[in-house]
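User: Round two. Same drill as before: sequence, then structure, for each protein.

Assistant: Same drill it is. First protein:
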Amino acid sequence: MGSNSGTQRLSPDRLARFPRLSSSDYEVTSNECRRYNCVAYAAGDETRKWDCPSIPEPGYYWPPGAIRGDEVAALVSAFQAIGYEVCQDGKLETGFEKVAIYVDHDGQWTHAAKQREDDGHWSSKLGDWEDTRHATLMDIGDGDYGVPYCFLRRPTGFAADEKTRT
């Protein structure tokens, strides 16, 4: 990712929420935006927030057929509904885009990050804050998001746009 000079950085209070990020070579890749969240961002949808409360709330999207809940299986099923399959790891694979799902100490999903196809680094939407590019999954681990738990992949160029629009 290169030198930090001239690269936009998170504010100190935001950076404090991700203790490992402050010592990494991360960069902010967007301005703060409340329109979408990390799950939507990882799914390639920057038009709305994705979440699955027991009772659907206005303004939130969840793919048809995906199970609802806080368990990892619910988030995995959402990504499967748009063409992803569970895979072994987060290593860069030619011809595939990958997503990592994070869990907290209770085993509930907390975050989703997507892998950049150009260099294998990871990209995350930090809540309603900025999008970031970070070299490793653990750069944002241990803080608010817990740890990476599982990985999914789908072929590059998959027609996800058709599957996420309803």
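Second protein:
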Amino acid sequence: MASETETKAAGESAVPLPLLIVIAVVVAGATGFYYYLKYSRSGPPQAVLTAEAKSYVKHLQLSGVEMKATESYIGQAIVEIIGRITNNGDRTLSQVDINCVFYDPYGQVVLRQRVSIVRPKTGGLKPGETKDFRLPFDELPQSWNNSMPQLVIAQIIF
């Protein structure tokens, strides 16, 4: 009988190997989930407006901004935000980016996406000029409250 106990002690651990594997997978999954919740909703770091850009924001005007939902050719819902931006200042802008901030019914941010509404390849935005913009979003979180997102100027490049 002593030989069986010695054999068990030498050949087997107190905790079975499959149980150790399950514990390791659960710990790894919980750690991954924690980091997903912590970092996924905040998105990439957002650029801070330069002092020059901050002082120029007052010259930009968004107008006619509205949201509509359409269906893509594959049957997927696409939410579009359309509107116009006017440059009431005296400088030509090569790029203007905005942050679109989507909320859930409880006022928590569920998505923050930065998009360009003025680009160099479309000619920028001259003083006194107004341009239309269209922002399609095809993958919004289900927890979104279906309200117009908050639109915040994120970057101005002169």
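DSSP finds three helices and six strands in the chain.

User: Perfect.
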